[in-house]
Design goal:
five-stranded mixed β-sheet; 5 strands; 2 domains; Trna Endonuclease, Chain: A, domain 1; alpha/beta
């Protein structure tokens, strides 16, 4: 018995010709079913070959069931999400209403604030106007004070000129008094001249010269405590200490200077210091220049008010 030759379906492609997609599809649709009928084993072989590509019925059922469960689960989740979104929508609606209320309240508060600021601004304007009026009144008062000061200054200048004239006249009287005393001066002559000076000051200045004692408790003049008698004239704010000497040296000038310091310390007023003498030695003039506060009067020509 001759052995039947095994049938094979071989698709050969030659370099001269390639099968098109239509030809391949024709073979699969028309020839493949005939081949499976002739060779049933080919079906199992094809099934194994395309197991990774085609899905079996049972597997398809499982997949569809899985998809159905996933869809149901997704529907539930979407429902939950929808519910959450609805709840969020409600919350946003509440927030919108709250924001509207806040906005209304804010607008109301802003209007009230603007109204209060307008009232404050009006009040400030009124206060500024009132302050300007008060400053104008103050300016007028200062102008009046300035005019009054000018009048006072004029009166003071006139008073100073009058006092200078009186000092000149007094100096002339001093010169006459000194000339009448003569060349010899002693204790009695100094006392008589001092009395003449008192009369002149009372006549021209309507002021009394009185004897005044300065207590040098710290020994500034001689280095030990002592008491000194001087002639003191007080007229208004002027304090004048007068010392009369037949002849004056540097010791007399220094003594009067120190007595002035003691008087200023005790009374709180710096006095004017005048040393009256017809004869002042050269050292007396030098000492007066050094201490700067002692005036030596010998004649009207030397007098400086």
């Amino acid at each position: 018995m001759a052995r039947k030759k095994k049938e094979e379906f071989v698709v050969r492609e030659t370099p001269e010709r390639y099968m098109s997609d239509e030809e391949v599809l024709y073979i699969i649709e028309k020839r493949l079913p005939e081949l499976i009928k002739k060779k049933p084993a080919l079906k199992a072989k094809l099934k194994d070959m395309f197991s990774d590509v085609f899905v079996e019925r049972d597997d398809m059922v499982k997949i569809l069931e899985e998809l159905r469960l996933q869809r149901e689960n997704s529907d539930k989740r979407f429902e939950e999400i929808n519910k959450r979104f609805e709840a969020m929508d409600k919350r946003f609606e509440k927030m919108d209403r709250r924001f509207e209320e806040m906005l209304k309240e804010s607008n109301k508060h802003r209007e009230e604030t603007n109204k209060r600021f307008d009232e404050m601004l009006n009040e400030l304007n009124k206060q500024r106007e009132d302050t300007n009026k008060r400053f104008e009144a103050v300016d007028r008062r200062f102008e009046a004070v300035d005019r009054r000061f000018e009048e006072v200054f004029r009166e003071l200048r006139a008073l100073r000129e009058d006092m200078n004239k009186r000092f000149v006249e007094m100096a002339k009287e001093f010169h006459n008094a000194i000339s009448s005393v003569g060349g010899r001066w002693g204790t009695r002559a100094e006392r008589a001249f001092r009395e003449g000076i008192k009369e002149i000051l009372e006549k021209y200045f309507n002021a009394k010269v009185r004897e005044f004692y300065i207590d040098d408790k710290e020994g500034i003049v001689k280095g030990r405590p002592a008491r000194y008698q001087v002639d003191l004239l007080i007229k208004d704010s002027y304090h004048i200490i007068i010392d009369v000497k037949a002849q004056a040296n540097e010791m007399d000038v220094n003594k009067l200077h120190k007595l002035g310091l003691i008087y200023e310390k005790q009374k709180g007023v710096k006095p004017r210091l005048i040393l009256l003498t017809p004869l002042a030695r050269e050292e007396a003039w030098r000492e007066a220049k050094d201490v700067k506060d002692v005036e030596i009067l010998t004649s009207p020509k030397k007098f400086k008010p």
